Automatic annotation (TrEMBL):
Similarity annotation: Belongs to the sulfatase family.
Matching InterPro entries: Alkaline_phosphatase_core_sf, Sulfatase, Sulfatase_CS, Sulfatase_N
Protein name, UniProt field: Ulvan-active sulfatase
Signal peptide limits: 1-25
């Protein structure tokens, strides 16, 4: 069949247009997630700016860390002021974070319990869709192995050479046979010692450098990289010059430190915490770890700028849970107090999330995976139970401050639950009568407002939300004591 010259010319124009559109079309957004471990949200300037002075400066008016690089992520995107660890312990919080599934359904319901092999993470969704994926740092979802480099089960993180399962190592090195812990004890075993760690070998720097290497290697294709920094979790040690950077800072105990004797039973101090004395040097070193993290975040952000990737990269800064840092006479985590359970959640997504967005609606780590996939326009797996907040973050939906996040202790049969909206927190446990905190009137969480007559309706609503949640779980999920409390609080006479 003969083809006219006009037809040929038209075909050439069509093909040229297709090629031009293909070559200039914007590639899918990259994803960079920076997750710290046991990080108190008040150490970040972006969060201090959302708080009244007495809450922003709990360790003293001048006891602050400057975090300009992390704060810049908030300025260019969204800051979530009521984001919580679904279960404020390393393994179960991470289990919910990567999967969007409540931790008790993932296999990794408590520290050192392994993920079920059929779990589909957000990284696996992106890997199947053509993303280059990778991970560096602490994983804590493959059982008790320690450090256990490059676990065999990758869960979507194809390049997991620098993933280690457990530990808070301070000195890491890259050898001909792969990564290893650089510090050793007298018996030759891996040690948490800092030793002579410097800007190349200190864990935070070393892991950040692995992220930079990955970004450079995959700059010409869509990538998803997860950087999991094991600080500022203890031991509170850090390399020079951060180890003395805050040595002259006057740091005082938080207001609630001296009131720890009034803690409810679910937060009672035990073991070393029972006789805990305030040690400002531990906080000085904690601040040093945070500042080292911020400087490394700056290094990574500079790399994105240099490669002209910033405008097409979703950047997340978060943590797995908090650290009480002497609030309520406690260190560490594991309970529903704000310092333990509330986490940073900052997301910059150019062209998707308007700069300077603030979200006060309550969410948990179980909501992260569906939200990230929603921001990227991806379908979440059917197994996901968390909420997709992408339309809220992008300004297409309105906030509902009565919406709740539900937290639970670790384990298959949680010993406590917390139901939280932007103002109130209801805590039910097997060891204590129900507690209600009014976070607006009592931000230090010192008083039980459960009996205040004006709170009866909000208590009933929060309890009903928890009742709805537990009704969807296995019959053995709820302790009898908590079931009785729920029944009482949701009854018309309650």
């Amino acid at each position: 069949m003969r083809t006219s010259r006009g037809s040929i010319h038209f075909a050439v124009l069509v093909c040229t247009a297709i090629l031009c559109n293909t070559s200039t079309a914007k590639s899918p957004p990259n994803v960079l997630i920076i997750q710290t471990d046991e990080h108190n949200f008040r150490t970040l300037g972006a969060y201090r700016d959302t708080l009244p002075p007495e809450q922003a400066f709990v360790w003293g008016d001048d006891a602050v860390v400057q975090t300009p690089s992390i704060d810049s992520i908030a300025e260019r995107g969204v800051i979530c002021t009521s984001f919580y660890a679904t279960s404020p312990v390393c393994t179960p919080s991470r289990a919910a974070f990567f999967s969007g599934i409540p931790p008790h359904k993932t296999g990794a319901h408590s520290n050192d319990q392994p993920y079920r092999s059929d779990i589909v993470t957000f990284a696996e969704v992106l890997r199947r869709d053509g993303y280059a994926t990778g991970y560096a740092g602490k994983w804590h979802l493959d059982g008790p192995g320690k450090p256990q480099w490059a676990p065999k089960r990758q869960f979507g993180f194809a390049d997991n050479r620098f993933m280690f399962n457990r530990g808070h190592w301070k000195n890491l090195e890259l050898t001909d046979s792969g990564p290893q812990v650089g510090a050793r004890d007298d018996k030759g075993n891996p040690s948490y010692n800092v030793d002579d760690a410097d800007e190349q070998t200190f864990a935070t720097d070393w892991l950040a450098d692995r992220a930079v290497d990955f970004i450079r290697k995959h700059a010409d294709e869509p990538f998803c990289y997860h950087l999991s920094i094991p600080d500022p979790h203890g031991p509170n040690t850090v390399r020079e010059p951060y180890d003395t950077m805050f040595a002259d800072m006057v740091i005082r105990p938080p207001l609630s430190f001296s009131m720890s004797r009034d803690n409810p039973a679910w937060a009672a101090a035990t073991g070393k915490n029972a006789t805990l004395k305030f040690n400002p040097s531990l906080m000085q070193l904690y601040f040093g770890m945070v500042r080292c993290i911020d400087d490394n975040v700056g290094k990574i952000l500079k790399t994105l700028d240099e490669l002209e990737l910033t405008s097409n990269t979703v950047i997340v800064f978060t943590s797995d849970h908090g650290d009480l840092c002497y609030e309520h006479g406690r260190l560490n985590k594991g309970n529903p107090y704000e310092g333990s359970a509330k986490i940073p959640m900052l997301i910059a997504a150019p062209g998707i999330i308007p700069p300077g967005t603030r979200v006060d609606q309550a969410f948990g780590t179980v909501d992260f995976a569906p939200t990230l996939l929603g921001l990227l326009g991806k379908q979440a797996p059917e197994s996901v139970e968390g909420r997709d907040a992408s339309e809220l973050f992008s300004g297409k939906a309105q906030q509902n401050l009565d919406e709740v996040a539900i937290l639970q202790s670790s384990g298959l049969k949680p010993s406590w639950f917390a139901v939280i909206n932007d103002r109130f927190k209801l805590v039910l446990s097997v060891s204590e009568r129900p507690w209600l905190f009014d976070l607006q009137q009592d931000p230090d969480e010192l008083r039980n407002s459960i009996d205040a007559s004006g709170n009866k309706q909000v208590v009933r609503e929060l309890a009903a939300a928890l009742q709805d949640y537990v009704s969807k779980q296995d019959a053995s999920f709820l302790h009898n004591k908590i079931e009785l409390q729920l029944r009482e609080l949701t009854s018309n006479e309650g």
